[in-house]
Design a protein that fits this description.
The protein is 35% helix and 21% strand. The chain has an eight-stranded mixed beta sheet with strand order 3-4-5-2-6-7-1-8, with helices on both faces. Strands 13-12-9-10-11-14 form a six-stranded mixed beta sheet, with helices on both faces.
Amino acid sequence: MEFQAFSPKQKMVLTWWCRSSSQRDREAIICDGAVRSGKTLCMGLSFFCWAMAEFHGARFALCGRSVGAVRRNLLDAVRPTLEALGFVWKERAGKNWITVGFGGRENTFFLFGGRDESSAGAIQGITLAGALLDEVTLMPRSFVEQTAARCSEKGARLWFSCNPEGPEHWFYREWICGAEEKRAVRIHFRMEDNPALGPEVLERYRRIFHGAFYRRFVLGEWTSPQGRVYDFFDEKMVRPVPEGDMEEWRISCDYGTVNPTSMGLWGRRNGVWYRVKEFYYDSRREGRQKTDREYVRDLEELAGGRPVRRVVADPSAASFITALREAGWPVEAAENEVISGIRITADLLRQGKLVICEPCRDAIREFSLYCWDERAAGDRVVKRFDHAMDEIRYFAVSLGRRERYLGALSVERAPW
């Protein structure tokens, strides 16, 4: 089968298991590298073609961070092409498995989510002829190892895809560095390996990412972040409060009892959100802790009678959220995925969609002090000077989710 549109690396993924391939004796394939580099599509197509060419009546696993992610990122991408090639696809509504037929053969593919340590139990007991693990670095090690252990049919193979994490990640140390020992084919992707990306798209991604994460997401390198989290942010990005009315008002909150509480007042004009005013209270410095009701009054004072449409609050602050709702405020519990949230925040700041204004001195101070923890094994931030940083991140992620501003970046996933 000839796919003229595929790049040389994509063709390697499509054909490594074929009888004419010099890699046919390998037991696994690893496709790692840059975002949007064409890994998922060619790996998914190759996996189904291999399964249908080599087996009949067998079981396979399709794994992702969640079952929804498997459907969205993998199945929705490969199904149209496979059906155009003559594959027959059967799926029962509400069932996390599909049957696929081709050339008189039929196999079953089960969908699994590897979200946390408890996920390994879901895949126990099944015998598999192969498994595809999409974004394997986001799954717990116990789930990945349990999945590998289930692939015990003769001729079974493992298929992995991922974007890079830090060089201390267990999958990098054991599978990427140990590919030969694992009898795995490793194919490393850069953005340029995806022929579907035009020059303007490549240039946009080069603008979005910088520093260690330019190397990670554009060049596909396994590298660790260092220094300040928002190392591009400086006083030159700080703006005066715009004069005149805003189109909409919102407030973001990070709640602390012993730690500081930070709140930001945001106004929208012409598609840009301005953090025009802040409240910041450090109980250690002041020598007194405040109650939930006192913080509700502080939020009311910060709002200053403006028609605040939404309050995006620290999801762990259950009592404070309750107090706000009892006082009549429209509260949304924030999403708290730190690393992906940092990436979304950084992108919005760099594009000028979020603007920090001059009165927000505590937020500006934290931007200069908020750092990566270089001693941590994975991507971690130092848990200091992060209170305004957290509530700004809560606000940025709420925009990405509600307004789909960053829908094309999914971010799920990778850190900024």
